Amino acid sequence: MKKTVVISEFDPFTNGHAYLAARAKEEGGLLLAVMSGSYTQRGRVAAFDKFARAEAAVEAGFDAVIELPPPFAAATAERFARGAMALAGKLGAETAVCGAETEDTAILELIAALMLTEPEEVGAQIRAEQKNGVSYPRARAAAVTAYLERHGGPQAARRAQAIFLQPNSMLALEYLKAAAGTGIRVRPVKRVGSAHDGDEDPAFPSAGAIRAALERGEPLPDGAVPPYSREMLARQPFLRHDADDGILLYALRNASESAVRGIADCPREIADRLLAHRMAAVSVDDLVARCVSKTHTAARVRRAVVSLALGHTDETFAVCLAEPCAFLLAAADKSVLAALNGSVVSRGGEFAEAGPCMDAILRADALRACAAGTDALSSYKRRLFAK
User: Which CATH architecture has domain 3-102+176-241+317-381?
Assistant: First the structure.
């Protein structure tokens, strides 16, 4: 049976996500979601319980929701995409659908190919830009744009320049890179409504805007999310982004220097700053503000702090990438399990045999449960099948 995956966080499940699901169903066959669990790509604790978010996705038409393990979910865009594509491959997916600010597949594929092959003149400009203190993402954007202007003309350069200013399109580029050679087709679907983290369209506010409004104590306007998602929000306690601050700071302050320097995908400069400021910082936001630089963003610093608390190292990432665990969070009915040919782990005795990826999932769930002030088991008792 044909399988299509949609890669997202659904924190919470929005009208935009419902639109993406409807577009993805055009592919036919089984529609699967690969979704972040207790921690998200910006290194923040998930605002809502992962099982409840998965149930909302099933209500929207997904046949099953599989968790993207934390070593991928709370990582850079490149590692997030590589993990998602590894999981899509394990599930036997032919197509991966993602939201983006453009459906201009031609320019996305061209840029992704340049990022993969990195011609010498592109690499030389990147290195020159970095020597001047420019971050790698900005240096790469400038180098690729300049290359296209020289070899493809001003119009190609303008199209590329626009892509590098679009956060979802940038993630689509990483999916295209990760899918190269796998046989998985990446299909971008243009976002509708508000921009990334925006709320300018009241019918389609972004998930980030919804979380920000809830942190300010504002009620959700009618129609801001689908009815089934609103029901989920009403049942679930909302977790602020700083709910895990005490746990994260404790883990950092008590970590050895070697453990800090061994954080997954953590540049030396960030490790140095974490070690220098870990005792003085009074919150994770304060710590991040002390550690950011021209070359390292707040999200990258926050991911490093979370990765330390969760025990993520480069070895963890490599092991999980080699054998990703497909943990089933929710499904439409039991027939989905047969269609997935035993490639998923569901709740029960399989945990012991699921390996390092499942261990990483359970650690992240335990940390979030501590932050939420709940037990670590109740969420696992939620219904698995919608019917």
Answer: 3-Layer(aba) Sandwich (3.40)
